[in-house]
């Protein structure tokens, strides 16, 4: 898939756009989610469902893409391109992502933004492992160093958790939030290479319109999963009262819900785009690279504590991030040098037709 995209003039712009969506969504989504819980929000299922409920917005670019295909005469008449195999994969990924969202929302209710961001960054190490088994992702000393650094950072946060619990919150609730956030990172790390594997195994041409369809279907199944949990838990009965009692005010309460939905939808669309243009491991790397910015935003907007354990964990995250990209830089240079050497050898070595007897 990546080889097919390499010749496309749209690959780099799409990768850049997807990376921007991923980074912006990952930085703002946790802030709005935490804002919801800090000002009277109580429903984990509602918060989880909001992370994918904006998926119908994708119908707009899909409509534009469909009109463009019809105009060029390259369309069979079907609005949707997705076939049964990818549809089934999107359903599985969507249900798993719905569970990820529930774990994330539950963890966010108990943890400061800065802490949850650092814990969630551990998904990179899990992504690397799953990517190795599912899509044969290669490893080197630099990617291994990244995995060790991020895992160690999460462990340090775990040992120092007692000093980070928000005021008035029980230690048991905080520990539960820590565990659920770690589970969210683990499960999300499986979903990323699973999507990459689905694209590779699909028996149809993969283009960006198809990626958006896959994204939307994931959102439909994830939202349906969370909506079912929302109704079973009867949380839906309290939303009107929750809005009236919110410290933000009723109007701002609904505005925050809308911002949660838009932010996380941008993240999901960005993740799918990066996997389509590059790999699941790169999407994990970009998710991790937002940690320093999310840390700073959490301290600025929510006046969260920034203790020594967070500082060490942050340094380890940055070190792991830089280590990975240095390794990728060296690998790319080596591949280019090998290609140049092979080309020179081919040009210098005489062919049979050139030998005069």
Automatic annotation (TrEMBL):
GO terms for molecular function: purine nucleobase transmembrane transporter activity; purine nucleoside transmembrane transporter activity. GO terms for cellular component: membrane. Pfam families: PUNUT. Belongs to the purine permeases (TC 2.A.7.14) family. This is Probable purine permease. Signal peptide: none annotated. Keywords: Membrane, Transmembrane, Transmembrane helix, Transport. InterPro entries: PUP_plant (IPR030182), Rhodanese-like_dom (IPR001763). It is found in: Membrane. It is a multi-pass membrane protein. Residues 32-54 form the Rhodanese domain. The chain crosses the membrane at residues 12-32, 44-64, 85-105, 117-135, 142-162, 174-194, 214-233, 253-274, 281-302, 308-327. Its main location: membrane.
């Amino acid at each position: 898939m990546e080889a097919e995209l390499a010749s496309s003039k749209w690959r780099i712009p799409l990768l850049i756009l997807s990376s921007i969506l991923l980074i912006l969504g990952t930085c703002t989504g946790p802030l709005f989610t935490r804002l919801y819980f800090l000002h009277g929000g109580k429903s984990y299922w509602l918060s989880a469902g909001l992370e994918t409920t904006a998926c119908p917005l994708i119908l707009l670019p899909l409509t534009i893409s469909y009109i463009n295909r019809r105009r060029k005469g390259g369309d069979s008449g079907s609005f949707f391109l997705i076939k049964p195999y990818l549809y089934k994969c999107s359903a599985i990924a969507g249900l798993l992502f719905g569970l990820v969202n529930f774990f994330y929302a539950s963890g966010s209710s108990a943890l400061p933004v800065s802490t949850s961001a650092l814990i969630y960054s551990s998904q990179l190490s899990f992504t690397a492992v799953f990517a190795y088994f599912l899509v044969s992702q290669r490893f080197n000393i630099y990617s291994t160093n990244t995995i060790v650094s991020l895992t160690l950072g999460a462990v340090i946060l775990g040992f120092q958790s007692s000093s980070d619990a928000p005021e008035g919150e029980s230690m048991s609730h905080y520990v539960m939030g820590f565990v659920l956030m770690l589970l969210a990172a683990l499960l999300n790390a499986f979903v990323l290479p699973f999507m990459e594997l689905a694209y590779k195994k699909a028996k149809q041409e993969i283009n960006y319109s198809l990626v958006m369809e896959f994204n939307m279907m994931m959102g439909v199944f994830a939202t349906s999963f969370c909506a079912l949990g929302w109704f079973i838990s009867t949380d839906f009965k309290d939303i009107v009262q929750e809005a009236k009692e919110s410290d933000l005010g009723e109007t701002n309460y609904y505005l925050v819900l809308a911002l949660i939905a838009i932010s996380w939808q941008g993240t999901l669309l960005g993740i799918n785009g990066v996997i389509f243009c590059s790999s699941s491991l790169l999407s994990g790397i970009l998710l991790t690279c937002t940690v320093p910015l999310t840390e700073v935003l959490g301290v600025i907007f929510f006046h969260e504590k920034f203790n020594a354990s967070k500082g060490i964990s942050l340094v380890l995250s940055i070190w792991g991030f830089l280590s990975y990209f240095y390794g990728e830089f060296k690998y790319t240079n080596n591949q280019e040098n090998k290609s140049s050497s092979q080309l020179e050898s081919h040009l210098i070595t005489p062919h049979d037709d050139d030998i005069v007897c």
